[in-house]
Amino acid sequence: MDHNGHQGHFGEHFTGVLAAAAGLTVAKPVPDCDGIDLTIGYPGRLGHLRHPAIQVQVKSWSVPAGSGSHWNYNGLSERQFNTIAGRDLRIPRFLVLVVVPPEQFDYAHADHEALQLSHAAYWASFHNHALVEADSATRRHRVEIPKDNLLTPKVLHDLLVFDPEAEG
Fold first, then answer.
1. Cα dihedral angle (36, 65, 103, 56), rounded to 10 degrees?
2. Contact assessment for residue 108 and residue 9, using Cβ atoms and an 8 Å cutoff
3. Please, are residues 81 and 42 in contact by the beta-carbon 8 Å criterion?
4. Which pLDDT tens digit goes with each residue over 78-131?
5. Cα–Cα distance between 116 and 119 in angstroms, integer?
6. SS3 77
7. Stated pTM of the model
8. Cα–Cα distance between 39 and 51 in angstroms, integer?
């Protein structure tokens, strides 16, 4: 597996580990038709919803850049952005950005006390964003991801009842 494939594989499993820690289900769409990497769900009733689910596009990044409050990610094509943006989605979709170390053997550290995954994952919703008209598969669309949107098991749980209309 090449470096990018390995890094992306780790990013998806990093996200899956967070979902497992939250007691959520994880499914990988087969075939991958539209860039959605994982469907994450709750097996039962959560608040007023039965079997709520979200879909996520997972991106991994080993050279993060941004401002004090946001990551400035330029790794989405316009088509990938359009897959997760807009108001006409029946199942909420999110971008999960997993920031990883540059070296693969630094992705995880294990000893007799703990397994530590490096570094962290962040989430963003683009529900209130307009689609990109050109919809190019090669032209990049830069997005900002708030550093406050740290993805944790509790946050993943909360995203299942996310109300995009309340999003600021």
1. -10
2. no
3. no
4. 999 999 999 999 899 999 999 999 999 999 999 999 999 999 999 999 999 999
5. 9
6. strand
7. 0.93
8. 12
